[in-house]
Structures are given as structure tokens and as C-alpha cells.
Amino acid sequence: MGLLIVDRSGTIKDGNPAFRELAGSGVEDLSSLSYSELFENGDQSSASEEIQRLMAGGSTAEEGVRTLLVKSGETRVVNKLSILIRNRDGEPDHVLLTMQVSAPG
User: N or C end of the chain: which has fewer CB within 10 A?
Assistant: First the structure.
């Protein structure tokens, strides 16, 4: 399962090896992207809005399906779960995302 950590502004902070393989990206590639840039144009604005909603405390988790842009130019439909992580003071700190390829259906 791919794991991704995104900060309050939507900047990617880290991705585990499974996520990097899923996206066809290296560590350096991820550090230069925002979360919304991982997706096709149709999903970019909703990805950005998702981070804003979570950071505003509107919800603590969101599930969905998005079309991930792979570095090679391919796309992959992924199921994702975004979870708000709070700091010790209870303030929104970052978002942990899990992603896996969606089963054909």
C-alpha cells in the first residue's frame, strides 16, 4: 500500500517505497511536487480542496478514487484514504494518505 505524507500547504513531504513504485517516482521527484500535481487535470482541483478541507477541520478523513499520473505518462486509477493528523496541541499538522490501485470493475 502506498503511503504519502502531505503538509498543511499540500506539499509532499515523504512517500514510502510502495507509493514511489506506484507513481514511478523517486524520492527527488516527490519532493518537487504538490499533492494535487500527482493527478490528472480533472482531479487536481478536488485534491487541493481536499487538503484545505482537512486542514480546516471540516472532516478528519476522506475516501475516494482518483486518477494518478505515473511518471512514465501512464495513468492508474487508485483508491485513496486521506487522514488528518493533529499535533500535540490538537491542531491540524499534516495529512497521511494511503493509495492502492483500484480493482477493475
Answer: C
Contact 96, 81 (CB under 8 A): no
**Strand pairing of 12-15 and 2-7?**
antiparallel
What Rg do the C-alpha atoms of the chain give, in angstroms?
13
Domain at 63, CATH number = 3.30.450.20
pTM of the predicted model as reported, rounded to 2 decimal places: 0.87
- Domain of 79 in residue numbering reads as 2-101
Return the amino acid letter for 31: S
Q: Which of 75, 58, 59 is nearest to 24 (CA)?
A: 75
Please give the distance of CA 91 from its chain centroid, rounded to a whole number. 20
**Number of compact structural domains in the chain:** 1
